[in-house]
Amino acid sequence: MTEFDEQLLEGMRKGRHIVVFTGAGASAESGIPTFRDRQSGLWQKFDAAELATPGAFRADPSLVWGWYESRRRAVRCAQPNGAHEAIAQMARHVPRLTLITQNVDDLHERAGSRDVLHLHGELAHPYCEGCRRRHDFQEQTPPDACQTGRIEPPRCATCGGRIRPGVVWFGESLPGAVWQASCEAARQAHVFLCIGTSSVVQPAASLTGLAIEAGAMTVQINPNPTSMDGDVRFTYRGPAGMLLPQLIEQAWPSN
Ligand code: BV8
Ligand code: ZN
């Protein structure tokens, strides 16, 4: 059992605005590979960052669409873990909680979190390259791309344009309104929790620095060292699915 610092627990009980910033590590215990993990199946010879680009989609739309469909399938087969549940529970204890995620899965929403700020888009919301209309998936469970690895992207029912994954690729800008809201929240945070991110991807990773500059009490939960270790006030080494429920229990004891 991790003993969290009493000043942190006090800060969480008194903080009027808590900001939670999550990365791929928050979904790791749900079985969703992080970007640091090696790819599996047909994509093991690719680095995720190579596939998550406009150029990769232009060069081989079926390979990239197949990769996203296999990830969408993995998310549909996964369940939210203790980290997602603890964050949803935290919102019930504090006057205001802003959840900002780099993740493209919907596990925060399925754990009960609302108004999630998805900095890098969402797997569930692909759209047409031509008219940008949102594409609704017909089938419930995505096709299993593990055999072929390739799936032809669907066509837009309205203009016939090619449908693309609803995510922000490397080299693409983050959605303006989401980015603005995230920066504002980071600047107003009383407590800023950085959960399961390597803090490598920019400009997302700069949110923690904004919170530090604005005087927030900053906390990091990650089993591994990150570039933010020397900057945040508290770092707890371990899996978020185990540590976050303990943090909630110590901040707001249920008995
Ligand atoms: C942009 C969607 C510019 C796709 C993703 C400086 C400023 C601006 C840009 C840049 C810059 N420097 C470099 C850039 C370019 C680039 C970038 O950051 N490159 C990196 C590689 C250096 N940034 C961009 O291109 C961004 N765009 O800035 O546009 C621009 C400006 C104006 C006009 C035009 C353009 C866009 C970046 C968005 C990329 N898309 N996702 C998809 O998912 O397929 S990012 C992708 O990486 C995921 O979202 C993922 O979340 C993220 C990786 O970060 P993490 O979440 O941290 O995941 P990671 O695997 O790295 O780490 C996991 C961590 O979890 C580890 O630390 C591990 O220890 C920990 N962990 C493991 N298990 C657990 C755990 N923690 C807790 N519990 C556990 N159980
Ligand atoms: Zn269209």
Helix and strand layout, with pairings?
Blueprint: H1 6-14, E1 17-22, H2 25-28, H3 48-51, H4 54-59, H5 61-77, H6 82-90, E2 96-101, H7 107-110, E3 117-118, E4 127-128, E5 163-164, H8 176-188, E6 191-195, H9 206-213, E7 217-221, E8 234-236, H10 240-251
Parallel strand pairs: 1-2, 1-6, 2-3, 6-7, 7-8
Antiparallel strand pairs: 4-5
Helix pairs in contact: 6-10, 8-9
The chain binds ligand BV8 and zinc ion.
Zinc ion (ZN) is lined by residues 128, 130-131, 133, 156, 158-159, 161.
In CATH, the architecture of the largest domain is 3-Layer(aba) Sandwich
Gross morphology: elongated
Total number of beta strands: 8
Poorly predicted sequence stretches spanning 5 or more consecutive residues? none
Q: Give the neighbour order of strands across the main sheet.
A: 3-2-1-6-7-8
| Radius of gyration, in angstroms, nearest whole number | 19 Å
Number of domains: 2
CATH class of the largest domain: Alpha Beta
CATH topology grouping of the largest domain = Rossmann fold
Bound molecules: ligand BV8, zinc ion
CATH superfamily of the largest domain: TPP-binding domain
N-to-C span: 17 Å
Proportion of residues in extended strands: 5-15%
Largest sheet: 6 strands, parallel
Summarize model confidence as the mean pLDDT.
94
- Tally of separate helices: 10
Helix and strand sequence: HEHHHHHEHEEEHEHEEH
